Amino acid sequence: MTGGLLLALAAFGAGAGLVAVSPELWVFTLGAIGAISDADLGRWVSILTFGAFVGLTLSGSLAVLGFAAAAPERSATVLSRAGAWLERRSRTLAVVLGAVFGTWFLLKALSALGLV
């Protein structure tokens, strides 16, 4: 095996391990499954909807990967600027996204308890 292939396999394993032990990702995925289940779409439509969820969830990562493969020099500049922007606004983004998803989960829980 070449060094590049071993590095790619190690990166894949690290990513898979991160997903396996990340409670945020599990909560997000199980929340999506619960929302799809609550929608009562039928078996095949539910499976297709979950497939669309997975595809849309991965689309951002795949777009960045494709951009990096197609234009490595340009992508390094763009991605470093995007990373700097995210670092400057990380607290704001965390608060806004936490409030949005926290409110959604709270309303879902209150609804399940019959309080809303």
Description:
- With 116 residues, the chain is mainly alpha-helical.
- The chain is 89% helix and 0% strand.
- The chain has helices spanning 3-21, 23-38, 43-70, 72-88, 90-112.
- The chain starts with a helix and ends with a helix.
- The mean pLDDT is 88.
Short description:
The chain is an all-alpha fold. Helices cover 89% and strands 0% of the residues. 0% of the residues are buried.
What percentage of residues falls in helices of 4 or more residues?
A: over 70%
How many DSSP E strands?
0
**Main sheet attributes: strand count, strand direction, barrel closure:** none
Percentage of β-strand residues: under 5%
Q: Flag low-confidence runs.
A: none
* Total DSSP helices: 5
Structural class: mainly alpha
Return the string of H and E elements. HHHHH
Mean pLDDT: 88
CA-based gyration radius: 19 Å
Can you tell me the overall shape?
A: extended
> Kindly, what is the distance between the CA atoms of the first and last residues, rounded to a whole number of angstroms?
58 Å
Main attributes?
mainly alpha, 116 residues, 5 helices
Strand and helix layout:
Layout: H1 3-21, H2 23-38, H3 43-70, H4 72-88, H5 90-112
Helix pairs in contact: 2-3, 3-4
